[in-house]
Amino acid sequence: MAYENILVETNGKVGIVTLNRPKALNALSAGLVRDLGAALDAFEADVNVHVIVLTGSDKAFAAGADIKEMAEKSYMDAYLEDFITKGWERVTTCRKPIIAAVAGFALGGGCEMAMMCDFIIAAQNAKFGQPEINLGTLPGAGGTQRLTRFVGKSKAMDMCLTGRMMDADEAWKCGLVSRIVPVDDLKDEVLKIAEAIADKSLPITMMVKEAVNAAYETTLAQGVRFERRLFQASFATDDQKEGMNAFIEKRQPSFTDR
Ligand code: HXC
């Protein structure tokens, strides 16, 4: 399927979505978010896709929600269309692992969208920020909540109240991103990471994602109980038998996603 605002490709078991509005630094227009939702639907439905990568250009992952599109919205426009729930939450409901590969600007909604992914790999030139305060508004796609969980209250307050940008190094030091790679290597490195995950059992990677996400939504006791149930359930899969037998037989496992 052809999209207006994104490029979509698969590389083996990895589905790649590249945000593609270069003239607007990949500003997240309603059309782009719609395209992204449709692409994620297609990747989720495709059993051959195990992992999804969301990326932008070398200059911008995304410079935020489209300011030109939203500048004149009234409260009632925003309320009735539930701006911006629709579409954006598709990223958070994705059941397959989704990696954000961020080069350049990840600002406002761009930073929020990267944080909706499961983890972030940053290029050395990445810049993260929640600059909405400079526009007379505040983060609206989870920035105040997710950034606080990633980096803690003090730095989240600093970022959201000053609107300043954080470079890749600072983002790595405070746990916003898991790894930093040179800009020119970003796509290759992220693909390698995605392929390593894609080689595992798909249902098990999905269970891992569910379990880690539960850490954000439950008490510790509930989360540990949930994890234990999934762990026990993994013993009903062929892939657990294959994985453990492969270890004992000193060979590589061959998972069948069952
Ligand atoms: C619409 C945008 C845009 C945006 C950049 N552009 N960001 N258009 N919405 N968020 C457009 C510019 O208008 C310009 O178009 C072109 O992209 C290039 O941008 P420049 O500003 O000329 O580039 P540069 O000087 O390199 O500066 C880069 C930048 C700056 C620092 C990233 O563009 C910037 O500050 N952008 C806005 C960042 C921001 O405030 N984001 C938060 C948005 S609010 P023309 O036509 O002039 O060439 C938000 C709320 C989320 O995200 C809430 C939930 C959705």
Structure explained in plain terms:
GO terms for molecular function: 3-hydroxyacyl-CoA dehydratase activity. Could possibly oxidize fatty acids using specific components. This is enoyl-CoA hydratase. Belongs to the enoyl-CoA hydratase/isomerase family. The chain has 258 residues and is α/β, with parallel strands linked by helices. It is globular and about 60 Å long. It contains twelve helices and ten strands. It has a six-stranded mixed β-sheet with strand order 1-2-3-5-7-10, with helices on both faces. A four-stranded mixed β-sheet has the order 4-6-8-9. Hexanoyl-coenzyme A binds at residues 24-25, 27, 63-68, 84, 105, 107-109, 131-132, 135, 139-141. Hexanoyl-coenzyme A binds next to helix 2 and strand 6.
